[in-house]
Predict the structure of Fumarylacetoacetase-like C-terminal domain-containing protein.
Amino acid sequence: MATFLAGSGPLVYGFTAIGKGSGSLCKMVCRSLSLQQQLPSLLFGLPRRKVHSPVATVRAAASISPMFGDEILKLATFQTGNGEDAVGVVCGDTIWHLQDVVKLPQSILPAQLSDMVGVIQHWDLLKNSLQLTREGRRLNEIKIQAPIPRPMGTIMCIGKNYLDHVKEVDTWKSAPGISTPEAPKHPIVFTKAPQSVIGPGAAIKYPYGWSELVDYEAELAVIIGKPGRGIQKEDALDHIFGYTILNDVTAREVQKRHQQWFLGKSCDTFCPMGPWIVPASEIDGQDLAIQCWVNDELRQDGRTSEMIFPIAELISTISAGITLQTGDILATGTPAGVGSGFNPPRHLKPGDTIRIKVEGIGELHNHVE
């Protein structure tokens, strides 16, 4: 799911479907010739012919279904131009308001279609009744925002969850003493303030006078779907709705000064997130490539399979005493290559660009100003 801004209005939610196979998207999802004509540009970046409104029926399943073939579903939030929140569906590079394409009797249509968490809560009902039968809008006409622009739930984060990152922490000269140099025996859990969230393309505000050691951390983020407490590891993945990308921006000297990491992690704009949520049924969150570029230089390059504490164990550990709620966000840690790990350190400065890519999800772009 993703959040985007169209014109000057409010936030809208929807999902995208993008094919991996050379013909599955057009033949299995949109039966119109017009969307088939888009396929070369969607998959290979070739010139695109003029496209008319496709007419298609999309039926999502709890797992990848034959109708979708190889393509991955994505859910998104955007803002309409009339000042009203709305929910939308994205297929290829086109978005439709969810209220226009969900074919359910009004008596059972959920009222929370304009709220990302509401859509997640009712997704089992909504996903089987989507019909793309009206003209949509192109994604390049709108501004994508964070999937959950202002989380009502908790943004939980995990420190030192990749062994190579643990090793580089021990070499830090700019902010030594943030934590012990050995691998943790139990997950290190901290939180970020919800007002730190920004979306794709938004600026990370450089905190002049407060920090000069601003760092980036590319992370896979889990979006909780099914609430629960005391969740066993073998059941943990059933509580995940989907995955997105999160940049755990950090003020290193503030993190060290206060030891409790909340202040150093929660500065306004220090939680870029997006561009959308991919349902957990579509990808294996425990085996994805994760990379980060700063000014087009590859800095981080790892796989989520390298986590010290796997996702299921994190959910089980946290839920042992805390009830996880729908819409809670869990950032699962960062691989090696953060700015503090270089000698000399290479922290973020105004004008820098950060691009994070997670396999199967997409890319999150932000800049510092």
Observations:
- The chain has nine helices and 23 strands.
- Residues 6-69 have pLDDT under 50 and may be disordered.
